Amino acid sequence: MDSKRLAAVVSAAICLLSCASCGKGAELTVNENVTAAENTVPHVGELVEPKEDSEEYSLGSYRIASDGVKFYYDDSIPEELMFALDEYFTCFQNSDYDKYETLLYPDYKERYSAYLQEEYEYDLRHSFELSGQNLRSIMQRECTEGDEDEDESKYTGDFTITRIKAEQPELEDGETIDDLKKKLFEYFFDIFDMDYYEYVKENSDEIEYVSFYIYAKGEDGKEHRLISGYDIAFALMDGKYYAFG
Fold this sequence. Notes:
By secondary structure, this protein is α+β, with helices and mostly antiparallel strands. It has helices at about 5-10, 80-95, 95-105, 105-120, 125-145, 175-185, 185-190, 195-200, and strands spanning about 65, 70, 160-165, 205-215, 225-235, 240. The radius of gyration is 18 Å and the shape is globular.
């Protein structure tokens, strides 16, 4: 991959999937996760408080979503935003580009598609595939860690999301959430030649900004922290949350 193409991958999305850091969390047994519910209407169950001797205790309380993913969030995070995070990253899990397209902010999808074609001569689908490959590479490394041969090729990197945690970001002295939102959108100032944050702010009902973590089961049968403490923004428009990237 040439340097120009690599730069496009690194800067491809607001949530910086290609730069996503991973870290070791508590070792958890995957069989603690429930299977997906038959009911297709998204919903969450009652709050679960893990016992002190549970492997899950250090992660805190959670609710189990209708697809079996465990959601960690408090009252400051809209439940619908948790489902938006779930849907978004499940697209990469399932390599479901058609679904992914429906989750993107409509104006962003049009502008960013044109930018990719003009600057890098590939389309949004290829950008999506590159981000998916990055997540699979992270899972390959996680599954291989500790193996004597350290042979990543024996894993495809496929993963199944098991837990999603979202929380309000930490603020520095004098810093506001609005400051963080503006900073997150800075990448688009140059490529769209406009203040895209103000555009989205004026053309949506709300911009939600959270820090998040993704846990997933790998082919080794273990649960790994796939994404650790990254920030992401969603725009709320007509009752639906849309992503950027």
